[in-house]
Amino acid sequence: MNNNNSILVYNQLIQGKYINKDLFDKEKRLMTNNELYIEINTSFAEYQDFYLKIGMELNMEDDFFFLSKVKEKDEEFIIDKQQYKQFFLINIIFRYLLNKNRNLDDFKNSNIGITEDVINEIFKEPEYADFFIHAEINNSNSPMYQILEKRNIVFKNSEDNYVLTNVGISFLEKIEEVGANINEGHQDENTIY
After folding, report:
1. Confidence band (pLDDT; 50, 70, 90) for 193?
2. What is the number of structural domains in the chain?
3. What does the pLDDT look like over 88-147, one tens digit per residue?
4. Can you give the residue range of the structural domain that contains 136?
């Protein structure tokens, strides 16, 4: 365990940020390996033990790490309010892009992304107003893209467009999977879609 990196890992995770496998290098205009992800991955057991001692669980899912509260023995995994908002926002962006016949791959592509204007347009759409009220999201106080960027769910590319990180892509794939299951008639009562 590298002491300097472990401090950086702690600071990010304790703030509710995800640590993604890949980072965008604006100068090189390409995705690079995230040193913090490598640090956790190579010393996972040590990090896991450390966070358990302070009542947190270090989770690895797909290509990212995050912290959650340690569950009691019979307690089911419960998504917290911030995670709900993050998942919800990706879902709304996904729906909006589909409704506007936009290419979802643009949102995943580090050289393309979607503009801040596109994200702001979503709040102007009347069909989403009730969703935002229900999720207690107000774009004027904390713009959607700032919420997602703060948690490392999206990043800004060289053109200042927003692109999904590893965790954002994972959220999007889960939403697509749920949508496919609903279309096939296999809706799970606990899904958010």
Report:
1. very low
2. 2
3. 888 888 889 989 999 889 999 999 999 988 888 888 888 888 878 777 777 655 667 787
4. 81-183
> Could you tell me if 95 and 50 lie in one domain?
no
- Sort strands 56-61 and 64-69 into parallel, antiparallel or unpaired: antiparallel
Sheet arrangement for strand 64-69:
19-20, 64-69, 56-61
Claim to verify: residue 59 and residue 103 sit in the same structural domain: no
Q: What percent of the chain has pLDDT over 70?
A: 84
Alpha carbons within 13 angstroms on the beta-carbon side of residue 134 total 10
Whole-model pTM: value is 0.82
Q: State the DSSP code for 34.
A: -
| Identity of the residue numbered 190 | N
| Per-residue pLDDT at 110 | 94
Task: Identify the helix (H) or strand (E) that includes residue 27.
Answer: none
Q: Provide the CA 81 distance to its chain's centre, in angstroms.
A: 13
Element (H, E) at 31: strand 30-33
> Amino acid letter at 142?
S
Q: Give the mean pLDDT of 67-87.
A: 71
